[in-house]
Amino acid sequence: MELTRLIVKGGVISPGELRDIVNMGLEQGLKDFSFGSRQDIIFPKGFENLDPEKKGSHQVIFPDQKSGNNIVSSYVSTDIFRNTAWLTGNKFLYILEQFKEQPALKVNITDPKQQLVPLFTGHINFIASEHEDYWFLYIRLPNWERMEVYPVLIYSWDISKFYYEIERIVSEESCGIDMIFSLVSEALDTNNRTIDKPLHIPFYPFPYYEGMNRLGIDQYWLGLYWRNNLYDLEFLKEMCDLCFDCKIGKICITPWKSFVVKGIPKDRKLDWEKFLGKKGINIRHSLLELNWHLPVAMDWALNLKTLLVRTLDQFDISTYGLTFGISEYNRDGHYFTSIVVEKNELPKDLASIKIRDTYNVLYAKNFDPNNRTYIVHAQDVDKLELPTILIELSRKYFDELGNSVIEIDTETATIKEKKELDVHQCQDCLTVYNSEYGDQEQGIEKGTLFKDLPVDYCCSLCEAPKANFIALNTEKPNINAAF
Questions:
Q1: How many domains does the chain have?
Q2: Most buried residue, 76, 192, 196, 291, by most Cβ within 10 Å?
């Protein structure tokens, strides 16, 4: 599929920049564009080259161009989802600003405490540590078979220097992690820090990222998703004007073909709701609809998703916390969803014969795509069998749901998974709260950790306060997995 990509560094764009891009599309007679999985903007086939004056500073990559990759960041998650305390939105912006030249490699800059943006889908992956302004660096270059960890933590203001030096080194010669470390250390004077503990990646259910939601005391954030991933340019143009009017400085693109507007003033919330209503915009999709990752502009994938979502909805199946992906067969592909449906390739000698497509179904170990280990659950199955298989896997997910934490060994880059039961007991009546089951009587979802319960939570039997519960020392066996 010949598509034109417009790079949006870190998935962060100003209303003015977005309006310029929209106008470029309108001038070429386009009605809509799409969002890509690396927080970029995708124009359809036929988008014409631009003269330098109209293109301005925008990085446009046409189908015949091989260079240029987007920087993915979890800036979109800051303030609205769980995040590392020291990692603010402004810090993300400062770091992104240091990248003056378009990267040739895929770069991810992420917070491990959020679930919206994948951690390890880049060639160069910077992941925030618990130490303020220091980052783990995980590298998996295109010709590498496994992920490697850089042996020191990287200082925030050295991130771009590290990236460009690594890019320069690997463009000149093929080398491993030890050689990269040696050459970078020799070339750069940087403020590194020793790794004193492994990277912890807590597992949280996938968040709901759509609709109008409160942000602090006097602001709101808005998540917008269109199921066909074709965003109307006239709508976006008017939305940018409304952002200007509300003094909103940034719009954030997600990897899920959607976008987020933060900082809507409380006294302008009604204006936004009227605007969306007049445009007929639906902001009440179910999580079952939102948690799918599809390739851009592939009708077969969108049609398959529609079938699967409709069937799961008819059976009233919960997929809370799960994510799904649809992909053409690619054993070297790096997925970032809990469950993946792969479409098998037809043998070339059968291409002229009309036969039914078959699919494989894989799931991430413990249904956490951040551990990067996928297990084949079913192979060569018909499309009509897929709903039953997805229902099986969703039940398996809830059966195994617990407090799972991934530790990545900093020497071997292998996963050490710790699973601890999050169990607390009321000291008065001995009632047990287990996060695996939640508390349905009080509307507490399965998988909710005790520390995340509301401060006014009380015992469901004797109504003793939350402070009256004590932790029980219970642990599941450790499991090791290859990274």
A1: 3
A2: 76
